[in-house]
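Appendix B, Record 12. Input sequence as logged:
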Amino acid sequence: MICHSRAGRRAAAVVLLLAVAGCTGHSAVGTIEYTTPEKRVVQIQSPSRDGCHPLPGGAHHVTNHTDDDIRLYSNTDCELTTAGNDQSGRIGGEAFYLGTQLSVEYTDGQSPWLSYSVVGGGG
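Logged structural output:
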C-alpha cells in the first residue's frame, strides 16, 4: 500500500501550478470561439502567441475572449491579401484586426477566415 502525505500532495500541486504559470507567457490566455459556415461552434483554449493558426472549416463569426488581440486572414498562411482583393471586396488588402473581448461577423460575399495570428506574437 502506498501512502501519500499531505505535504507531498501540496508540493506536487505547487510544482504543477508553477509549470502551468510558466507556460502562460507563451499563450494568449482565454478562449477564441468561432462559428463555421455550417454553423458548427469551435472553441480554442489559450492559443500560442507564436505562429499562424488554422481555423479548420473556416470562420464566419469569431469572438476573441483572450487577453491578446488577434488578426484574422482569408487564407491558411496568415498572409495579407493583395491590394484590391481584401476580404470584403474593398480596396486595401488588410487582414481583420480583432481586439480582445470583441467579436466580428463576416459580410456578404466575403470568404471565411481560414487562419489567425496573435498580435504581438512571433507570427
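Residues 65 and 101 are 5 Å apart (CA to CA).
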